Recover the amino acids of this structure.
């Protein structure tokens, strides 16, 4: 398999798919396309009709769009535990992933993922308040239901954490308010070996994407 990703410093959707693919334990190649460059647009149009990263290549099949990639991986690697085993928890996990995938425009627009940015508060519009409050509610609800199975949204690290890991980085980068429970979740995500590996690669990058430097 091959995963086409964008700059690791900025590409939150790439991070989600990369985490999910890494969780399956399968070996895969990566191809990094530098966002916002002619090279990106030249190459991506050969790989995906949607023209965006991430794209998963499996033989002659291309799967694009993060949610579709994660669902494909969950079917292809049923033992990887990408979704929680319990049907109710699984439905809940799918709901919060779909909710993020189709929503939170103000949080995404005002607080782009930017892993190397020095953490500092950043002014927040009232519309983003609603988004950050809802993210916090999601994390708190999941953590209160997760019990002792692990420090992540559904205990063990799952597709839901793949989805919310880039959101964790935004909360930390832009010093957004978090309760103790939410901060403990954020710390667990950042300490995960896969997050550490992605962030280490991101730290080596030098390209600047102006649109994501708010
Ligand atoms: N809905 C898509 C969003 C993908 C997306 O917006 N990717 C960004 C990078 S994080 C991208 O490819 N941007 C390049 C562009 O839009 O030209 C998904 O879930 O994968």
């Amino acid at each position: 398999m091959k995963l086409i990703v964008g700059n690791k410093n900025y590409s939150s959707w790439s991070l989600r798919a990369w985490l999910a693919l890494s969780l399956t334990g399968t070996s895969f190649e990566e191809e990094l396309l530098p966002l916002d460059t002619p090279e990106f647009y030249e190459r991506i149009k050969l790989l995906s009709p949607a023209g965006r990263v991430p794209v998963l290549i499996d033989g002659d099949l291309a799967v694009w769009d993060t949610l579709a990639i994660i669902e494909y991986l969950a079917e292809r690697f049923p033992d990887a535990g990408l979704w929680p085993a319990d049907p109710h928890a699984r439905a809940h996990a799918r709901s919060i992933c779909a909710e993020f995938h189709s929503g939170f425009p103000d949080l995404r627009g005002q607080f782009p993922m930017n892993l190397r940015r020095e953490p500092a508060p950043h002014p927040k519009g009232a519309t983003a308040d609603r988004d950050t409050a809802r993210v916090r509610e999601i994390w708190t609800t999941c953590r209160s239901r997760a019990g002792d199975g692990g420090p992540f949204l559904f205990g063990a690290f799952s597709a839901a954490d793949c989805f919310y890991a880039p959101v964790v980085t935004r909360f930390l980068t832009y010093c957004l308010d978090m309760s103790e429970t939410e901060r403990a979740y954020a710390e667990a995500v950042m300490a995960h070996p896969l997050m550490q590996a992605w962030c280490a690669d991101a730290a080596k990058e030098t390209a600047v994407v102006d649109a994501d430097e708010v």
